[in-house]
Each structure stands twice: as C-alpha cells, then as structure tokens.
Amino acid sequence: MCGIAGFVGRGSRTDIRAMTAALAHRGPDGEGFYENDEEHVFLGHRRLSVRDIKGGAQPMWDSTRETGIVFNGEIYNFLELRAELEAAGAKFQTSHSDTEVLIHGYRHWGSGLAQRLNGMFAFAIMDKTQGRLYLARDRFGEKPLFYAPQKDTFAFSSELNSLEKHSQVQGEISNLGLQKLFAYGYIPAPNTLLQNVFKLPAGHQMTVDLKTLETKITKYWEFRLTPDEGLSPENDDELAQQLQDLISQSVARRLVSDVPLGVFLSGGIDSSAILSAAATHSDATVSSFTIGFEEASYDESRYAQIVAEHAGSKHHLKSLNLGNAQHLIPEILGKLDEPIGDASLLPTYLLSKFTREHVTVALSGDGADELFAGYDPFLALKPAHTYQKYVPDLAHKLFTGFANKMPKSGKNMSLDFKLRRTLAGLSYPESLWAPVWMAPLFPEQMKDFFKEPLPLEDLYSEAMEIWDSNPAADRTDRLLSFFTQLYLQNNILTKVDRASMMSSLETRAIFLDNDIVDFCTKLPSHFKMRNGQRKYLLKKALKPLLPEETIRRKKKGFGIPLADWMRKMPEVQSPRTVPGVEMGYAHRQWAEHNSGKTDNRFFLWNWLALQNSPLGY
C-alpha cells in the first residue's frame, strides 16, 4: 500500500518532491523518484512495504528501461498472471512482486491489462515506446487517483492535497463539487472540491500523450446486475455453499503478505465470516481487533468477543469513551484531503490506529452491505412505496410536520431520526429517495445555503442516472445499484482508505473480490431480501460457521453520538469564507441544533469537514 504522484509538462523537482512528501503517511517505509527534465516527466512514490520487501522498490522499470510504473494497491491474482506471462516469454527480475506483474502485463496486454486484474489498485505506467502514460483505477475505487489537466501540465496523485502542491495546480473551489458534497455527504467521481481537478472514476483507465498532453478516458468495467431468473428458492442450499466457498477463496487470496496481518472484527456477520475463514486458512493464530465504546447503544464489543472465542483468534480489544475522543475531530478532519460527511470516519480511524500497533494489514468486510442489501433503506422500500401511493400530499405534510416536532434523540439510529429522514425522502420521486434520506441538506434547504443552487436533475444527476439505467429491475436492485455504484465508491471506500492510511495501515476488502461480485450480480433480489430479512443468502451461507447469536443479531452501524456531540462542540470561530454560500446559514443551523429545535448533525459535520480541510481554496 503506497502513495503515488507524478506529472508531465511544466514543473520541477521541487514540485514532485513536495507532492510525494504530502503522501508520507501512505508510505512511511521509503520513497523513490523518476525525474527527467529532458522528457519533462516526473514520478514519485511513497512505500508501505507489504510484499517483496527487498525487491519491490518503486518506480520500477523493466529490463529495457522503456516501461516504468508507480503503483498503489495489491493484485490478488498476481501469481496466476505471472505464470501466464512467463509461459508467454516474460523474464521476471523479482521473486514475488505484483508490481512487476503489472509491468509485464502491460507490455503483453496493453490497455487490456486492467480488466484482467483482481485486486485494488491505482497506478501510472510510463511507456516510452508509445510516448504515453497509462493510468488505471480498480473496479470499485478502493484506491484513489486524482488528476489535473492544467495548461501545459498533466498531474496526478493519490490524494488531493498532494496534487495541490504542484505549482501549476490552482486551488479554486468548485461550486458543483461543493453543492454535491452537501447533497450527498460526499463528492461523486469524477467531481472534486477543486475546479479543473478530477477523480478517475472506478473501473476506468486513461492514457496521456507525453508530447501533446491529450487525454483519453475509457471504462473497462461497470457494476451491472444481470440476474439469472432461473435461480429460485430451490437453489438456496447450492448457492449458499457456492457463496461460502467464494468467501473462503477470497480470504485465502488476501492472506498473502510478508508482514503481520489481522482482521477488523465488529461482531457482525461480515467481519465474523472473514475471521472464521482466516482462522481456517492460517497455520498461525489469527489476530482480531475491536474498538469498544462505553456508550451502550454504540458498543459491539460483546458480540465481537463471542466470535473471537468461537474462531480461536488472538483478540485485541480497546474500550474507549467516545466523549474523550471528541477532541480528535478537528485533527482528523484536518488530515482529510477532501471533505467527507461520514462521521464514522472517527471510529474507523481509532480502530485503524489501534490495529496498526500490532499489524500492518487488516482484512475488512466493506462491500457486503451493498452487495447483499444490508442497509436500513432496503427495509423501507416497500412501505415507502405504499405510503407514497396512497397518502395524499396534505396528509404527508401534516405527518412530516409532526415528525419534525418530535423530541430529538441522540441514540444510534433512533426511531424519531429514521422517521424524519424517511418522510423527507418521500417528498420526492423514487429516484431521489436514497440520496435525500442520507443528505446533509435536503433540496429545499439548499436554496437557503447556496446563492445559486443547482436544479434537482443536476444536483442528483448520478443517483437519478443509476435509478433510471435499468427500468426492468425491481426497487431492491435499483437501490442496491445506487449503494454499490455511488455510495460504496465515493463514501465507504474513501472513508476507509483515508482513515486507515492516516495510520499507515493497509486494508483489504474481502467481499469486493471479482468472483464474489460476479456471483452477486447474477443473484435475483429475493436472494438478498426475503420476507423482510436482509442479506438472506449471506446469512444462510454463514449459518454453519458462526454462532447463532451472530446470525440473529440486528445490524448496528459503526457510528458515534454525532447529534449530542454537535451540541457540545463549540461553533467554528472566525470561519473561513466559502465562495457561493450564505455564511450566516451555518451559524443559524448550529444555534437551532444546540437548542434542540432541529437535528442538523449531518450538515454540521460536513461544515466542520469543510472548515478544517487542508485544501487551499
């Protein structure tokens, strides 16, 4: 796991050194550079040594010095690819470097390389023969890749604040990116918070001509549901066994490491399944890691302990008082290259920091909720449709007004909170339910905060496109596509990458293995949601492996008492001016929240993230 940076065109060694230094937390074990003033090409790399510790330094070149790479990530099928490439005549210089597999793979398959990879990655390959850079990002965007096509310069980096260190990259704020941040709680790719700076979307690749700087972006993979309607409940047992085998295979692939490795363990079925499989495949005792909280409605440590004992892991538990962690919020947000509205960033950081005290790599369950319909909104779909169909507008306004006057609870996913959110979403068409349910600001509030708010079709263009892209799909699969294509990439994986890399910890997402994902795309929705039970097939597959209490327990999100905290935190003093917004709006939101009149937790967290951002807008 590493950080990469580079540019073609105007710039100097000072630029690449500054860009790479800004990524030191992503790779504390070493750095490397390619600096060619004559070619006007500069590459930088920060390394977290995980595999091929002695031979894996970067930038890495082939024997002819014509093809070089800077790479961030892990390729889990590198041994299979290496064998195929050796059979085709490739001569390897390293013993087991997945980085070198990418070099030879590019020379053999060219731009067809990315679609052959099973892993998480962002890389840039310099091809002197073709006179181009070839960049690619993994299927779901586990690893970040930003780029800036500026005048006379093309620059790229793993993080936005690193990219901003280049003297040619301007840090002016993007009104589009800013409005989408407060509409979604994250900024969907390819948008960013800065003008003329972009994220390469997941599943995409691009080439850059080294002379003209002309760029070409293509999509090499897209998550698309193609359910096999021939699969019926009669296939339950067979499919459950297939899924169990695929999870075991994915864990085995991700256990390959030259450094100590462990498992994030919440006590939920996703992380519990990973620990169970890891214990089966590992000759040594597996380490598991849990953060516990003194606040009962947020604590899962008891369930994690049950699973750890069941699997026989060496369990590490650190119990925290969330209130004592409050002071870390400005510090953590100040390290975040681009603001993100997910407050579980804090406990994810605390878990990563604790885990890094013992190991360098951690296996995680990210992606399971998206692939198997694990979130609360999946339960709301059917009653929401019935409500919107039969409840007249006047009654809806009365119900919404009543919900807004209910006492505001600070408990995790309290009834009043879910009721207000659900009714707010039902004021809009189905395609907007999910983003509005999760929004820092509802569409009508955007008018008060932004001087020139975007029309709904522009503000939520990504969500609407996903919802409308497969009109034959049922609501469950449409919502699953929203979470998998939009929320997972831009929120969950971004949060986990930044929180873990702040502590120089590599995380590996078991459920995003190519084979598991391909299996899930073929499942009809009744294998994900059945009779009100979320993750139906996943729970069936894991039932023989896990304690009954783990299978039956209700899902608990990895959160913090954000509503209460925002009432105890001091308002931002002397906030820096944000172009295009009504600055007094934030003050009013804070005052209303502190009085208990409204629950503005999501907006206030976004505002804090924006105010503490290290970006120089």
Keywords for this structure?
Glutamine Phosphoribosylpyrophosphate, subunit 1, domain 1; Rossmann fold; six-stranded antiparallel β-sheet; 19 strands; globular
Summarize the entry for a quick read:
The protein is of the alpha+beta class and 617 residues long.
Task: Please give a structural write-up.
Among the domains are: 2-219, Aminohydrolase, N-terminal nucleophile (Ntn) domain (Glutamine Phosphoribosylpyrophosphate, subunit 1, domain 1); 233-373 and 483-552, Rossmann fold, CATH 3.40.50. The two termini are 29 Å apart. With 617 residues, it is α+β, with helices and mostly antiparallel strands. Helices cover 40% and strands 16% of the residues. The protein has a 6-stranded antiparallel beta sheet with strand order 2-3-1-9-8-10. It has 25 helices and 19 strands. Helix 2 crosses helix 3 and helix 6 (236-254) packs across helix 7 (269-281).
